Amino acid sequence: MMLRLKDFFDISDVLAVSTCNRTEIYYSSSNDINEDIIKLLLIEKGIEDVDNFKAYFEQFSEGDEAVKHLFHVATGLQSQVVGDMQIPNQIKHAYQWSADLNMAGPFLHRLLHTIFFANKRVAQETFFRDGAASVSYAAVELLEGLMPNPKILVVGLGEIGTDVCRNLAQNTSAEVTLVNRTRSKAEVLGAELGFRVADFADIESEISRADIIVSSIQREEPFFTKEMMVRLRGMSFKYFIDLSVPRSVSPEVEEVPGVMLYTIDSIRSKADEALQRRLDAVPHVEEIIGEAVVEFNDWSREMIVSPTIQKLKGALETIRKEELTRFTKSLTESEMEKVERITTSMMQKILKLPVLQLKAACKRGEAETLIDVLNDLFNLEKEKESH
């Protein structure tokens, strides 16, 4: 898609963020081409009735709004579970794609690095990253602390079971086996995440070889019972993590020596506490984002005057070299070096105040007036043509 955008439009600094629940395109251009990009996205998906689908797209025509929105997305404020790092990590990957395709210029490099620094501040200064704020994350956090390098059996691949698997793929190197009544679903997820797959008919032998069993089976009565555990006597120590509602693991399994059970209620309680800590940290996160946005906007406004600064430097450098050529023909090499240092130092001191004034004018929104004055004083437009 990024290459298609590059082919169709005169744009630079393109960032394409695609996740399970959002597709966002950020770009730098002298014109607002949001409508054209929306049309291209829909056509690429085989949708020709473009007008009826425009309402599903959120558009930002002002650069400042788009920048602030990306900060919110990239820090996890707009994640399904607030503070979740999945989307921020996907933005890092998207930025790498932009860089690999030579579609990341100075603007995008500066913006993303400012965002990464803001994320670092969020992690260091707030509780916004603390704890697992979703049941699936909390379950993975729990099982990671139970034993080193466990064999994990995940039974049931509904929404929560699938989420646990995806989180396991990101956070553990343990051996994971998937079991689902519909084996084809397990095979698809197993192939994607690199996990082993077993038949539901072999569930008891899989329980015997596993250290931790994560269950999210949907049924009215418990599937894992005390009788089953007694029948599998001689097995090693087992942990059950029951994420089902109603419960799929009978509380009586803990009556069997060596079996421990964690229920969704205790896991959800941990997740709720972590989520509340994150929500309490949101005002501080917003403050950090606000400071970072101001810093980035100051830099981007300074970029407007950068060409004028370069032309002014070029004009003064031309004068310096012309005058040196006229008056230094009879100087020795040592004298010439001294004159070079002196005139270069003089030029830098002459430039210092106009550059500072230009940058200050940027922050006040008055840069255009000063740019016009400098252009007139030093005939910088002519200077540009001569180069």
UniProtKB/TrEMBL annotation:
Record key words, sorted: NADP, Oxidoreductase, Porphyrin biosynthesis
Marked site: Important for activity: H69
Pathway(s) of this molecule: Porphyrin-containing compound metabolism; protoporphyrin-IX biosynthesis; 5-aminolevulinate from L-glutamyl-tRNA(Glu): step 1/2
Database matches in InterPro entries: 4pyrrol_synth_GluRdtase (IPR000343), 4pyrrol_synth_GluRdtase_dimer (IPR015896), 4pyrrol_synth_GluRdtase_N (IPR015895), GluRdtase_dimer_dom_sf (IPR036453), GluRdtase_N_sf (IPR036343), NAD(P)-bd_dom_sf (IPR036291), Shikm_DH/Glu-tRNA_Rdtase (IPR006151)
Taxonomy, superkingdom: Bacteria
Chemical reaction(s) catalysed: (S)-4-amino-5-oxopentanoate + tRNA(Glu) + NADP(+) = L-glutamyl-tRNA(Glu) + NADPH + H(+)
Domain named Tetrapyrrole biosynthesis glutamyl-tRNA reductase dimerisation: residues: 285-380
Domain Quinate/shikimate 5-dehydrogenase/glutamyl-tRNA reductase: 149-268
Pfam name, any one: GlutR_dimer
Active site: C20 (nucleophile)
Enzyme Commission numbers on file: 1.2.1.70
Binding locations of NADP(+): G156, L157, G158, E159, I160, G161
The keyword S-adenosyl-L-methionine appears for this protein: no
Miscellaneous remark of the record: During catalysis, the active site Cys acts as a nucleophile attacking the alpha-carbonyl group of tRNA-bound glutamate with the formation of a thioester intermediate between enzyme and glutamate, and the concomitant release of tRNA(Glu). The thioester intermediate is finally reduced by direct hydride transfer from NADPH, to form the product GSA.
Domain observations: Possesses an unusual extended V-shaped dimeric structure with each monomer consisting of three distinct domains arranged along a curved 'spinal' alpha-helix. The N-terminal catalytic domain specifically recognizes the glutamate moiety of the substrate. The second domain is the NADPH-binding domain, and the third C-terminal domain is responsible for dimerization.
Function: Catalyzes the NADPH-dependent reduction of glutamyl-tRNA(Glu) to glutamate 1-semialdehyde (GSA).
Subunit-structure text: Homodimer.
Protein name (record): Glutamyl-tRNA reductase
